[in-house]
């Protein structure tokens, strides 16, 4: 069974981006879906890359095992969250010194989504897709973008019909590429 690894860029307990990923995982429940917990990954420091910290070895292993990633990115100041950027930087680094072909994120298939304010996460998704393309990932063209609007104060993310359709469309696109 093909594996999809979901990565949320928000550590917030009631994160809308994490909830959106869970909706996607429901549509894709016939795949082996799991969520990456990377809260223990330290800030990248090139002095501490070889050997890599245990938490980095673990997230690299989970990433390497996945056939596809689905990254849900919040928008922090028109960009990615710091935690997500730090994770992607670790995943972009070679496992063997100087051999960039050993970087586990290289060449991965990746779907992306965002739940944010009035931009609906367009700035963070532009940065994210640029970063992923730089790492030779195949980024699914359709992206789910949610303008949270008046839902910011709510705990549970309830999707509108057009948002459900967009998410289902992206799931179908990812499915066709797996
Ligand atoms: C540091 C910070 C910067 C933010 N900057 C933006 C922004 O540039 N654009 C936007 O739409 N929302 C911005 N927001 C609001 C987030 O989109 C909002 O908090 C969202 O719910 C975060 O995602 P989450 O629910 O998955 O945690 C910002 C929030 C924080 C904490």
Describe the 3D structure.
Strands 1, 2, 3, 4, 5 and 6 form a six-stranded parallel beta sheet that branches. The protein has one domain (3-177): Flavodoxin domain (Rossmann fold, 3-Layer(aba) Sandwich). The N and C termini lie close together (10 Å). The longest helix has 17 residues, at 161-177. Helix 1 (16-27) links the parallel strand 1 (3-8) and strand 2. It has five helices and six strands, in the order E-H-E-H-E-H-E-H-E-E-H. The protein is of the alpha/beta class and 178 residues long. The chain has helices spanning 16-27, 54-65, 82-92, 122-134, 161-177, and strands at 3-8, 32-35, 68-72, 109-116, 138-139, 144-147. Flavin mononucleotide binds next to helix 1 and strand 4.
Low-confidence segments, given as residue ranges, are: none
* CA gyration radius, whole angstroms: 16 Å
Structural class, judged by helices and strands?
Answer: alpha/beta
The shape, in one word, is globular
Q: State the CATH architecture.
A: 3-Layer(aba) Sandwich
CATH top level label: Alpha Beta
- Please give the share of residues in helix: 25-40%
Beta fraction: 15-25%
What is the number of helical segments per DSSP (H or I, 4+ residues)?
5
